[in-house]
Amino acid sequence: MARSRIGIWLIGARGGVATTTLVGLSALKKGLVGTTGLVTHLPRFAHLELPDWKDFVVGGHEIREVPLLDEAMRLATESRAFDAALVTRCRAELNRIDSRICRGTIHNVGRKIAGLASSEVPRRESPREAIDRIGEDLKQFAESQRLDHLIVVNVASTEPAVDTSAIPPTWEELEELLDRPRKCPLPASSLYAIAALDRGASYINFTPSLGSAPAAIDDLARLRKTRHFGCDGKTGETLLKSTLAPMFGQRNLDVMSWVGHNIFGNMDGQVLDDPVNKKTKVQSKNQLLGKILGYEPDSLVSIEYIKSLGDWKTAWDHVHFTGFLGTPMCFQFIWQGCDSLLAAPLVLDLIRLTDLARRRGETGLMTFLASFFKSPHGVDEHGFVRQFQMLEAWAQSPGRQ
After folding, report:
1. What are the structural domains, with CATH classification, of the chain?
2. Which of 76, 102, 124, 203 has the fewest CB atoms nearer than 10 Å to its CB?
């Protein structure tokens, strides 16, 4: 495969997931770490002509002023997510990336996220002005780095839920609202999506935020002949739910209730401590049981911020189900993991697969990526095994390379 120069543009570029992704990418470029956790390095995908780690150059948007290197060191020393020595060996690359990070937007992000922004972030720009400013940053990055393809990935904090009934169904109608801030309900994640797709870049929403979900933004992607997908990366408790719930259905066991309690202490947890932001995340985590089982058991998902945990999260789930002769039984599990380390390799996988989709000439929704997300757009299948089979089938297809 001829080498390409591929741009990665991270929204929330100094957050925990982005920083861990960048430490990992830098370490992979230098051959300092192995490929454990990377789906695209499974033998079944070895035949795909995926980009090499050295093909990528990175920039991003961020609303905070903390240096990227400081955030990496904090994750290493406070959360002990990875070795501080690894950060030191990647220092030069992280500093180069930091110099390419621009100020983001806080349009309709809610009080909690807006409160984290530096005073330099614009606060009175219209949606159109924000999109134009973001788009100019993307254009300059693509031109200065001589990119063949730019992939924008949203790994920022979770925004409050949006009333989507106020969003028109076509791009032509939606575009008219961009000059009317009071009439335009779009949050920052959607403005980033529009800016990216309008300029032919690919867009991936790894968060539960609205992003590119509206039909009008999908309409824009198809008009510009580019691609997008989301939302909400499936990394822990919901990954287990999507694997285990089909088992109950396939054994004809009646799930009466499924309760999940989550605790973690990183910035995402701090933002989700606000009930307005938490609602968006809970909706994303809670919707899949009914879709897998075909009925709605009693369900409760709780998310609590415990500062001392740092980037480590724990999920405890209790499943109450009925077996043969009506006998009630229960199943419990505890999932403990480092939040950013679970997410970062998936971000890198999504970027590699998205570039392959571009070379295959695919546009619109990348539904073959469903297994990576809690709420995959345009996909009715929510069982993990079957979703993964969709990825395998796509990988085996010849495409249009």
Report:
1. 6-233+341-396 (3.40.50.720), 237-338 (3.30.360.10)
2. 124
CB-CB contact of 295 with 253 (8 Å): no
How far is it, in rounded angstroms, from Cα 212 to Cα 224? Answer: 14
Rounded distance, CA 52 to CA 55, Å? 5
User: How far is residue 68's CA from residue 213's CA, in Å, rounded to a whole number?
Assistant: 29
Helix axes 68-77, 91-98, angle to 10 degrees: 130
> 356, 283 in Cβ contact below 8 A?
no
Beta strands in 100-155 (DSSP E): 101-103, 149-154
Pairing of strands 149-154, 202-205: parallel
The DSSP H or E segment spanning 86 is helix 84-89
pLDDT tens for the chain, 401 residues long, are 567 899 999 999 999 999 999 999 999 999 999 999 999 999 999 999 999 999 999 999 999 999 999 999 999 999 999 999 999 999 999 999 999 999 999 999 999 999 999 999 998 899 999 999 999 999 999 999 999 999 999 999 999 999 899 899 999 999 999 998 888 999 999 999 999 999 999 999 999 999 999 999 999 999 999 999 999 999 999 999 999 999 999 999 999 999 999 998 877 777 777 777 777 777 767 788 999 999 999 999 998 999 999 899 999 999 999 999 999 999 999 999 999 999 999 999 999 999 999 999 999 999 999 999 999 999 999 999 999 999 999 999 876 54
Read off φ and ψ for residue 56, nearest 5 degrees.
-100, 140
Question: pTM to 2 decimals?
Answer: 0.94
Q: Say how many CA atoms lie within 13 Å of 176 toward its Cβ.
A: 6
264: left (phi over 0), alpha (psi -120 to 50) or beta: beta
